[in-house]
Design a protein that fits this description.
Length: 322
């Protein structure tokens, strides 16, 4: 349904007096993936790895440097007259719905707005559909007259979900949609998203920095590092037997209940050089992860590893997988 091929998004940043110094940030640097009907692709990676930029490129909120994005076989840059259809098919939910939900609007108007814009629904007709949508996300109808400030974080996220599904989209981009919620509210919202997925046949691009969150909802997972996919494949496989050293690092950072396993993971983590994500303005040569990789060899410093298939449906970009 959604096909992204060799996507690159560069930001040109100007600094200094009259912008005399300038440089490029390669936020997304050659990313390819597909998303099928009714499926969830989890996108994980540290802060600054380019996750949101991919989502924003899909939503056409940032321009792309090169590559293609196709929705149902149509290149999104050639939509022209069908822009409104595209806007309907692709919806998004963000981390902090509070900043997006207009505080001076009641819920009926917030959820009903897209219905008015796209279908011209008004008055009773619109309110009936809004009540239906609120019911689908587990909110009672009497909430319609209330303002966003009168809700809890989890409830506000449900309002955002109701608005996102109002136009029966094919895909919802969830960018850190549950990251700000406490753990029990997180699992409630995840369950709601799964339920809606089954009922409405939705596909999700589920973005989060926390692999522990992503694994519970994803069919496929893509691990991003400095704007490139390091490993991508079935969620089960990625979490139970990661092949890329970076994915192994992310997995080892997930807390587990078993004290022996926890100790093993701590030991694995302690072998790593204590460095942070290099900057996307000045990425390392060769494999972008080599500066932090405990297994790096000289080839990793000079040559960019290309993604290749290692197991059915799984690709890894690493020289060590030989
Ligand atoms: N408008 C912009 N102008 C310049 N640089 C940008 C812009 N937007 C993003 N970047 C840079 O692009 C890179 C990727 O940013 P992005 O927001 O996609 O990361 P992210 O993975 O979503 O991080 P987080 O987990 O913190 O949300 C970062 O280095 C960031 O500084
Ligand atoms: Mg982000």
């Amino acid at each position: 349904m959604l096909t992204v091929e060799d996507l690159r998004v560069y930001f040109h940043v100007k600094r200094g007096l009259m912008g005399r110094r300038s440089y490029d940030v390669r936020a997304v640097d050659g990313v390819s993936f597909g998303l099928a009907h009714g499926q969830t692709l989890g996108l994980v990676g540290e802060s600054g790895s380019g996750k949101s930029t991919i989502g924003r490129a899909l939503l056409r909120l940032v321009g792309i440097h090169s590559g293609t994005i196709q929705l149902n076989g149509t290149d999104v840059r050639e939509l022209r007259g069908r822009m409104l259809d595209f806007r309907r098919d692709l919806q998004a939910i963000f981390q902090d719905p509070y900043s997006l939900l207009n505080p001076s609007m009641i819920v009926a108007d917030i959820v009903g707005e897209p219905l008015t814009i796209h279908y011209g629904l008004k008055g009773r007709q619109r309110d009936e559909r809004v009540a239906q949508l609120l019911d689908q996300v587990g909110l009672a109808t009497y909430h319609m007259e209330r303002y966003p400030s009168e809700f809890s974080g989890g409830q506000r996220q449900r309002i955002a979900v109701a608005r996102a599904i109002a136009l029966e989209p094919q895909i919802i981009i969830c960018d850190e949609a549950i990251s700000a919620l406490d753990v029990s509210t997180q699992s409630q919202v995840i369950n709601l998203l799964k339920e809606l997925q089954e009922r409405l046949g939705l596909a999700y691009l589920f973005i989060a920095h926390d692999l522990a969150v992503v694994r519970h909802i994803s069919d496929q997972i893509a691990v991003l590092y400095l704007g490139r996919i390091m490993e991508m494949g079935p969620a089960e496989l990625i979490c139970s037997a990661p092949r890329h050293p970076y994915t192994q690092l992310l997995i080892s950072a997930i807390p587990v209940a078993d004290p022996i396993e926890q100790k093993k993971r701590k030991a694995a983590r302690s072998q790593l050089p204590p460095s942070e994500l290099p900057s996307a303005t000045n990425p390392p040569d060769g494999c972008p992860f080599h500066t932090r990789c405990p297994q790096a060899v000289s080839r990793c410093r000079n040559e960019v590893p290309l993604p290749r298939q290692v197991r059915p449906g799984e690709i890894v970009a690493c020289h060590l997988i030989d």
